[in-house]
Amino acid sequence: MGKLIYRPVGMVLSLLSGVLASFVFSRVWKAVSGEPEAPKAMEAHRSWRNVLGAAALHGAVFGLVKAAVDRGGARGFERVTGTWPGDE
């Protein structure tokens, strides 16, 4: 029953983590590269190193933020309901 109740909460948290991850990535990218925007793969004037580095950083930041938000949401749910949403 806990998983069913948690499902809408998890969806909202997932959306919020995507927004937060995008914000965090843009700040980290600016700090690391000094450039206002990360390169896109189809920009001809960008180097492979630059494009792939940005993609790797984006993936790492997104994964970290998503895991932190998911874990925090599960902990909050557990505090409120007394059950962990991921357990069988």
Would you count the extended β strands for me? 0
> Which structural class matches the secondary elements?
mainly alpha
Inertia-based shape: elongated
Distance between the termini: 10 Å
> How would a textbook summarize the main sheet?
none
Q: Which percent range fits the helix content? A: over 70%
Low-confidence stretches: none
Order of helices and strands: HH
Averaging pLDDT over every residue, what do you get?
92
Number of domains: 1
* Approximate strand percentage: under 5%
Structure overview:
This protein has 88 residues and is mainly α. The chain has one domain. It has 2 helices and no strands. The longest helix is centred in the last third of the chain and has 34 residues. The radius of gyration is 17 Å and the shape is elongated. The mean pLDDT is 92.
Provide the fold topology.
Layout: H1 2-33, H2 48-81
Q: Short summary of the structure?
A:
The protein has 88 residues and is an all-alpha fold.
